[in-house]
Write a structure and sequence with these properties.
With 119 residues, the protein is α+β, with helices and mostly antiparallel strands. Helices cover 29% and strands 12% of the residues.
Length: 119
């Protein structure tokens, strides 16, 4: 099913319209202000990729060039790229929580005990 994007001439905001088929005529209305004067935009499209293609992309050394394994924010950026590349297989609340923890400067040690090592 195609999704078309329109820009409202009145408020300049974007509205997406889902259609059931390419040949369907769309009378877009702005979801933000109700404007009817809409301009259709060129949209991006997605192509399905094989698991092998996704793995090859993740193995590309140039994608790891900016990774600093001692910097939680750098690891979070890499994890986001992995999540985007892997799609639904990699998403979920636990994954999102781990990325958020790293983005906030979380601990990379993997020690969840929270205790004092000197005791």
């Amino acid at each position: 099913m195609p999704i078309y994007e329109y820009q409202c001439e009145k408020c300049r905001k974007l509205t997406s319209v889902l259609t059931t088929r390419v040949s369907e005529k769309v009378d877009a209305v702005c979801a933000h202000c109700g404007g009817k004067k809409m301009r259709r935009l060129m949209s991006r499209f997605a192509m399905p990729r094989s698991e092998e293609s996704r793995m090859d992309s993740l193995a590309d050394p140039s994608k790891l060039r900016d990774l600093d394994e001692n910097d939680p924010k750098s690891v979070a950026r890499m994890m986001k790229r992995m999540g985007t590349e892997m799609g639904d297989e990699f998403s979920g609340p636990e994954f999102d929580e781990a990325v958020q923890e790293l983005e906030s400067g979380g601990d990379l040690s993997g020690d969840d005990s929270g205790g004092d090592d000197d005791l």
